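Protocol step 4 of 5: obtain the predicted structure for the target chain.
Materials: sequence only (see below). No template structures provided, no constraints applied. The aim of this step is simply to have a reference model before the mutagenesis design in step 5. Sequence pasted as it appears in the construct record:
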Amino acid sequence: GIVVDLSQQYALKRPGFAVVTSTHCIMDDNSNLERNISFSIGFNDTDRPKKFYDPIVSYNARYQQNGVDSTEEHDKAILFFAHAEIPNGIEPISLFIADNNQASSIRELFDRPSMAVDYVQAQGRFNVQEDCRILATSGPFLRSNCLVNPEASGSPLFVQMRDGTVRVVGVASERATSPQ
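Step 4 output (structure tokens):
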């Protein structure tokens, strides 16, 4: 997951921060919400990450009802850590929100530079895939040529917008993989 700035889309009623991830990352094997959800911030070579617990979780309830294998379209979640402060040096990034799901708003993403970043704990390092592109849309999915590790579900896909800002446009989901 990634820390995101929701202040442009929502009037937050309490201080805290939000994380966007894939729903299947926070579900147990029976498609129930995990009991002890946590998020670590600050992976680097010198400092230990700071861990946050007990978020308010928002996800599409149809994901849980339909079961993990059949609900790719609902594989997104927001974790809100109320009254938690983001460590110094960590900047939340804005989400890309399509203008009323207008196709022209989404088409704007196609020719823009993209980047995927993932962290696989077993490898103990970040994987950065730069200079990739969004290739197509399929329902609620964006397909890109960014390569991420198989265990990297929930990791962000970034796009540099025409105005130079960088936005999160999606998160990786192993549930949404396709041979195309």
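Step 4 remarks: The two ends are 25 Å apart (CA to CA). The helical segments are 61-66, 103-107.
Proceed to step 5.
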